[in-house]
Amino acid sequence: MAYDLKGFKYDSTKFFCKCMKDQITELRVERANIIQAEAMARKKRPKLTSDGKLTILATDHPARRVTNVGDDQFCMANRLQYLGRVLRVIAAGEFDGVMGPTDIIEDLFIMNYLLRQAGGPSFLDNKVILGCMNRGGLAGTVWEMDDRMTSFTAESIARLGLDGAKIMFRLDPENPDSLATIDYCARAITEVNSYGLPTFVEALPVKKEGGRYRTLKDAKELARLAGVASALGDSSANLWLKLPYAENYEIVAESTTLPILMLGGEARGDPTPTLAEFAAGMKLGGNVRGALVGRNILYPGDDDPMAVASAVHKIVHEGYTAEQAVEYLMQVRGKDMDLLHRYLPCECVGCCESGGSSRCCG
User: What pLDDT is attached to residue 267?
Assistant: First the structure.
């Protein structure tokens, strides 16, 4: 079945409105202690994955000063839209879990608390939640490659009962700051290992062009870097790798015994190429075990993030082809848009930019 929007245009504010965002801020001011309490109340999985595969939503881009989606340089800077899209995937979709820095993960705990207090279900129970650690290499700065640990620590990840950590290093052979970042990552892995938790390592070969770093999606370069990432820290027993899909991905898969999650890169506005790449990658079997993806899920043009995420989930866990995934995407887009509003009706008339539901906007 050919991909077709059929006139659909996703509006995030119909799912998550300004009043809900304001409630999060109110609790941050008045009752910030509920974050820890909600984290402790969460029901955790007995194992990281039930079938050896994972689909994780990445929400760490704004914390590195990365706010562009396509030509829109500030798209992800709008927290109402960004958090609404994250919630759309995690609260209404099938994805296994979410990865993010402190503010996003804690926003999710607060929203989960609000929903549960209103009689709704916990959308974080049995989800995999990963804390992002290094965000110091801010995009566009002179120190961008010196990517220090500026968000979660191993201790805070354990204290909140999260399921693991995520770190990243980019290798530019001509920039000595790459070595410093690799050292930060090795130390972080050792610290996370001391708590018996897994670390997901994103390793990217990069080259600076036109004043910004570009990821080299070359299978041989990725394979060489996978060898470096696999040997970081005092043990590789709990390491997973996050590596971008590339042509000849079998070369990447053959470079390590560690499990690999694919990433999708920058948003393209059309979800079908990403679905095709992930379907091709999963056919390799062995150690290609799923996807850890952000912008391609959250900003799929005019389509529904939940529907795209669910299609990826079907590819990873049920072996859907790209064509089957597209068909499934079109079947589920737009479903349960009132999920949050069923339990959290807004009291302010006209609060939603798009009109929302009658319960939301009076």
Answer: 65
Q: Are 329 and 305 in contact (CB under 8 A)?
A: no
Contact 102, 162 (CB under 8 A): no
Residue 4 in domain: no
* Residue 356 confidence (pLDDT) above 60: no
Using alpha carbons, select from 17, 21, 25, 113 the residue that is nearest to residue 338. Answer: 17
CB environment 23-55: b (16+ within 10 A), e (fewer): bbeebeeeeeebbeebbebbeeeeebbeeebbb
Q: How far apart are CA 154 and CA 251, in angstroms?
A: 32
- Kindly state the average pLDDT of the residues 113-142: 97
Asked if the model's pLDDT at residue 341 lies above 70, the reply is: yes
Q: At which residue do the structure tokens 């549960």 appear?
A: 116
Contact call for residues 360 and 84 (beta carbons, < 8 A): no
Residue 47 tokens read as 């194992």
Say if residue 353's pLDDT is above 50: no
The overall longest dimension of the chain from CA atoms, in Å, is: 59
Task: Give the total residue count for the chain.
Answer: 362
In a domain, 138, yes or no: yes
Number of domain units in the chain: 1
Chain position carrying tokens 């971008």:
244
Q: At what angle do helices 79-92 and 305-318 cross, to 10 degrees?
A: 40
CATH number at residue 114: 3.20.20.70
The whole-model pTM stands at 0.94
